[in-house]
Write a structure and sequence with these properties.
CATH topology: Ribosomal Protein L9, domain 1
Shape: globular
CATH architecture: 3-Layer(aba) Sandwich
Helix content: 10-25%
Low-confidence stretches: none
Number of helices: 1
Structural class: alpha+beta
Strand order of the largest sheet: 4-1-5
Radius of gyration: 11 Å
Number of strands: 5
CATH class: Alpha Beta
Distance between the termini: 19 Å
């Protein structure tokens, strides 16, 4: 991965689909957090339409993520 991954949260009411670098596609439901490259074309498109948001470092302990 050429860039560091960031944490995102789904803000859309319906699930979103993110394709990983290895070609797998993962569906994330509303409210779910996930890590992805900010250069991922799916992340760029979903950020543009406000379907996901970047989670700040300050919020990470409160997201319920087990990482």
């Amino acid at each position: 991965m050429s860039s560091r991954s960031k944490m995102y949260q789904v803000t859309a009411k319906s699930p979103v689909l993110i394709e990983t670098e290895d070609g797998n596609a993962i569906s994330y439901p509303s409210g779910k957090c996930f890590n992805a490259s900010p250069l991922n074309q799916h992340v760029v498109r979903l950020m543009r339409i406000n379907a996901i948001r970047e989670v700040s470092a300050r919020e990470i302990p409160n997201t319920g993520s087990s990482r």
